[in-house]
Amino acid sequence: MLSSSEIDEIVFQVLLSRMHGKKRYAQPVTANTMHRLLNQAQDILKKEPVMLELSADIAVVGDIHGNIDDLLRIFERLRYPPAMRYIFLGDYVDRGLYGTEVLMLLFALKVKYPENIFLLRGNHETENLSRYYGFYKEISGKYEEDVYMSIIDTFDYLPLCAIIGDRIFCVHGGISPLLKNVDDFAHMQKPHELSGCGIFTDMVWSDPGIDVAEYAPNERGCGYIYGPKALAKFLDDNGLDLLVRSHEMCSDGVAWPYADDEETVDRCLTVFSNSNYCYRGNSGAILHISSDLLVNVEVFPPLTEQDLKKRKVLLPYWLYDMIAKKEAEKKNAVKSTARSSKAKELVPLRVSENEGKYGNTVKDVPLRVAVPVNC
């Protein structure tokens, strides 16, 4: 079992790999440490049900797709756990270059603060997709096959959905004609590899569609297109007000799929947290659901190359003691002035204990929009 200091070291190594715009493709930690981290994460995730029931005052994060820099600025903006609670809606890997670092950081935080960060499963948390959409190639340049397979095993223990404050249903893709009663679903066992047809596949693959009344085949080849009537019935039958999902890129980071339908205009919200997805120039967004179920939307623009070169990674406050100890050890063991200067350069002096701005420029200040949810 990894000690608390070893978990902190994993987090630090991920942050260190992004300092001053440096791009490291090597292993942030050893394969042995990765296996131990994954085993510990599995032990925690095994105890979580297929459907989480969470209290409000929580941040909701959509697709990340290997964008470690967006993930870091989200944590820097809203603060790292345990200062803020998070639920992620899946799709941590593929498309981007740093799915390994994204998983490493999220699993380390899950082990360190299991009640402050929750990870749902997306359609890319499967062997079928991750082998062919970038993650397998990425991790093969850093680790052997056994680490990849251990990650695939860990995906099998991720929950599929969550209900926040008894009123907001969170899922990666959407609903299914097989998903009638959430209380019945809560007693189901988590699936292993998501393939073929069925309720679990539908929930990570389905999309909302305004031109469909209830359900229609999905052009993706998996899941369904669910219309306003289907969504309204599902929410009403289960005493829910809002469905929050991800799975689709949004130019502005968020979208209301049923904006043109009077009855369900504010009952489905898509959030996508990976900015500049596949170089499309889109904004990213995150949500914060307050204790009184007010949904705050924060939108942030893509990071430019200049932003990445100028930015300094902020450390969570709980890492500061470890960094101070490292600095003291380096000073005691310093062999030359040049080496001492280099060591100081690698360690930022800023600590992310309070909220800060995205990046370093005024344009990175997020837009806040308050959307009330009926109780």
Main sheet properties: 6 strands, mixed
How many individual domains? 1
What class, by secondary structure content? alpha/beta
In round numbers, the mean pLDDT is 88
> What is the radius of gyration?
21 Å
CATH topology: Purple Acid Phosphatase, chain A, domain 2
Note poorly predicted spans: 343-375
- Please provide the count of β strands: 17
**Quaternary organisation of the protein chains:** single chain
How much of the sequence lies in strands comes to 15-25%
CATH class: Alpha Beta
Order of helices and strands: HHEEHEHEHHHEEHHEEEHEEEEEHEHHEE
The CATH homologous superfamily is called: Metallo-dependent phosphatases
Describe what you observe in this structure.
This protein is 33% helix and 17% strand. With 375 residues, the protein is of the alpha/beta class. It has a single domain, classed as 4-Layer Sandwich (Purple Acid Phosphatase, chain A, domain 2), CATH 3.60.21. The strands form four sheets. It has a six-stranded mixed sheet with strand order 1-5-6-10-12-11, with no helix packed on it. It has a six-stranded mixed sheet with strand order 4-3-2-13-14-17, with helices on one face. Helix 1 runs antiparallel to helix 4, helix 2 packs across helix 4 and helix 2 packs parallel to helix 7. The longest helix is centred in the first third of the chain and has 16 residues. The radius of gyration is 21 Å and the shape is globular.
